[in-house]
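[audit] Reproducing an earlier prediction to check determinism. Same input, same settings, fresh worker. If the tokens differ from the archived copy the diff job will pick it up downstream; this log only records the rerun itself.
[audit] input (348 residues):
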Amino acid sequence: MSSTELPFVPPANVLPKVGTVRVAEGERLRSVELPGVTLTVRSRPPARDGLPPALYVHGLGGSSQNWSAVMALLDGFVDSEALDLPGFGDSPPPDDGDYSVTGHGRAVIRYLDSSGRGPVHLFGNSLGGAVATRVAAVRPDLVRTLTLVSPALPEIRVQRAAVPTGLLAVPGVALLFTRLTRQWTAEQRVRGVMALCYGDPGRVTPEGFSNAVQEMERRLRLPYFWDAMARSARGIVNAYTLGGQQGLWRQAERVLAPTLLVYGGRDQLVGFRMAQKAARAFRDSRLMTLPDAGHVAMMEYPETVATAFRELLSDAGELGAQRARWAGRADAGGDAGDREGTDESMGG
């Protein structure tokens, strides 16, 4: 279960309409109103017409910015968008206060249904991996391929370092933790998060650390920050206890889409031992293990993750189909230039 946003992006501009939320060069943010929820969507203008859509879902306490590095590396292969889940990033809390895995999954499905972008190449990290698994299982029509980085799937023996995060699910603990850590600076909080989420915190640049501190300061000023964290943590714990067809492992077995699984050998939150179980559960899966990575491999090793996804695309026949479409348009004299980005707003 990943904690706060850890920018792994170059210097960023700031959009006035979203306060201090950082936007990497080439990215844009827009707000999408849907029934019961408003989502902030981060996107990059596609390199050309006809690229298949991709959607990225972050983990507990993270945001769409967690995927910025991978999105930039996949510019020529997919049309990328990343969501801020309700209550995280720049998305406000959901109207019904539902932060369960099912609730977050419902928000993703509502966005895909309203945008008409499906089926997409769906990515998820940690909590986002559990959400993406549920979406792929219940709505296979919306998912072309599935890429999961340290997905938060149930473990019998939970990692010791993950216990404090799980305790946030206990009523009253978040308030108690807030009181006990009132004197902690944003720098201290970010260093703790990086030590927990990265295999090697030394890979974070000074600029990346400064950006993370600024983002932490912004989030701590949000009146719903700890409530969103606690309720989402509770949602993960509750999802771990579900059995039958609603169990996450049972739903993993129902996923039809080709699946790429990425696990870090130094992950302190999702057990590395779960990698082989996941590879067996997802029927059409491939497994990539990164011995030196922690919980957020897409931020520590974005080039490696992007390369593995491109190989998944190739093996799934997507790249060949794309080249055929591009060749057909070129023969017909079609426009092979860049396409304008998506609209700045989208109604629900």
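[audit] rerun output stored. Observation attached for the diff report: The two ends are 30 Å apart (CA to CA).
[audit] end
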